[in-house]
Design goal:
The complex is a heterodimer of chains A (190) and B (101).
Chain A (H helix, E strand, L loop, with lengths): L2 H24 L3 H21 L3 H26 L13 H25 L16 H10 L2 H22 L13 H7 L3
Chain B lengths: L4 H21 L3 H26 L3 H29 L15
Classes of the chains: A mainly alpha (190), B mainly alpha (101).
Chain lengths: 190, 101
């Protein structure tokens, strides 16, 4: 692939990524924010492909842009419309402080990474075609990082149990015992 | 070879800062969760960039583990938001400041 083509793909993906991230933060409707985050995750997958991380890019699209975002959109649709304008009533001191803190955080990241790694980032070493492939990821995951693999499974199990406990209706004082929880939630739309 | 790896790190730093801005600025817990996803993805991009820089797969493994933790966090966070909604509390992180429902 030609040099100019790689630059063009990087440019489009990087600016789509940053633009959709800014859109997530600035949209007042959470539904639009979630849709913008899907675009953000998709363009990040393109950047991962440019860094020859094929399996991570595929997992990003399948897990994040697929499963996680479907769950987000489902919950947003279940809760109904909760518009929250970020700049309503002019900029407050809290908003200005948030912008200043985020800017300071970015300056800090740039300075630290620039001080520690600027000399070694100039050229990327050549890698074989197996770098980032599913077979190589599986080999490294199940040999060098077996403990991380097992801990990941425990974390996912704990999250599944926590989701069931939080979603159960057992601890709720029922105002109307006859109707189901889903119908109660719909009747409470404000 | 396309763009320098420094450019990828710049995108990663911008993503992290935008996510942090969303966490501090927005009041809806749903948008706060979405902004945390942006921050995690910025960190993932930095991990994968350094993995490419060192030609070592461990960074990609770390990124996959971060993805699993992010999925777990979304499950628990959305469960909390639905539980808060079912108790008829207002979905505003500035007003949800006490632990008693």
């Amino acid at each position: 692939m030609g040099n100019a083509l790689v630059w063009a793909v990087w440019f489009v993906a990087a600016f789509a990524c940053l633009g959709s991230a800014a859109a997530v933060v600035s949209f007042s409707n959470p539904f639009y924010s979630a849709l913008a985050l899907i675009g953000n995750l998709g363009s990040l997958a393109v950047l991962y492909l440019l860094l020859s991380a094929e399996f991570v890019a595929a997992a990003q699209v399948l897990v994040y842009a697929g499963a996680v975002m479907v769950m987000f959109l489902f919950v947003i649709a279940y809760l109904g419309r909760h518009a929250d304008a970020p700049w309503a009533g002019g900029p407050s001191w809290q908003a200005l402080g948030a912008v200043a803190a985020a800017g300071a955080l970015m300056v800090e990241i740039v300075v630290v990474v620039g001080l520690k790694a600027s000399g070694r980032l100039s050229n990327a070493p050549d890698v074989t075609a197996a770098f980032g492939s599913p077979s190589e990821v599986g080999r490294v995951f199940l040999s060098d990082h077996l403990l991380a693999f097992e801990i990941t499974s425990i974390v996912l199990l704990a999250a599944a149990v926590g989701g069931v406990v939080l979603g159960s209706h057992a601890h709720e004082d029922p105002p109307k015992p006859a109707s189901s929880g889903l119908l109660q939630g719909e009747g409470r739309a404000r | 070879m396309g763009p320098n790896l420094t450019w990828y790190l710049a995108v990663s730093a911008f993503l992290f800062a935008i996510g942090a801005l969303g966490v501090m600025l927005r009041r809806s817990p749903l948008i706060v969760l979405l902004s945390i996803e942006i921050m995690l993805n910025g960190a993932n991009l930095a991990l994968i960039t350094f993995s490419r820089n060192h030609a070592d797969m461990s960074g990609q493994i770390f990124a996959l583990a971060v993805m699993a933790v992010a999925a777990s966090e979304v499950v628990v966070g959305l469960g909390l938001i639905v539980a808060v909604h079912r108790r008829k509390l207002e979905l505003d992180v500035d007003k949800l400041s006490t632990l008693r429902g």
